[in-house]
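User: Some background: our group keeps a shared notebook of sequences we're curious about, and every so often someone picks one and asks for a predicted structure to add to the entry. Today it's my turn. The entry only has the sequence so far, pasted here. Could you supply the structure so I can complete it?
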Amino acid sequence: MPPYVLAHGIDVVDLTAFAAQLSQPGTQFLRVLSRRERLRANRYSGFRFAEHVAGRWAIKEAVIKAFSQALFGQPPIIAAEEVNFAEIEVVADAFGRIKVQLHGEFAAAITAALGEDLQWFASISHDGAVCIGSVILCRSHTARTIEAPSEVTND
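Assistant: Of course. Here's the predicted structure to add to the notebook entry:
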């Protein structure tokens, strides 16, 4: 049985504005990256650097949105200002395909709220001055089952 979708998160970044923000003296924006993400980003320069970092930022924001959506009807369990974005890591394989790895307190909060049987599917796309990050949060097939309703209505 394949994983089933719990939630979807999406974020769009204006690359021109993002690049301007990154170039500001004393910008704190790179603190959202993990050590491994910073090392990978440093392979690039100029606008390509901003484009790469914007993609990671979009995925991190999309993770937050998917997590929040998975808790629909429940109060947030982490205040937005308490999220350490470096604990949401975007890693890539040798072919550039990405996945999300969670660490630290953020990972513990996700596990406490939703369980350990989760998978995160992520995609980044760039077109002109726009970057989009999309994340689908799924429960793996080993998870507890949810009964389908016996009748569906369009109320």
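Suggested note for the entry: The CA atoms of residues 2 and 49 lie 36 Å apart. The beta strands are 4-14, 88-92, 98-102, 118-127, 130-139.
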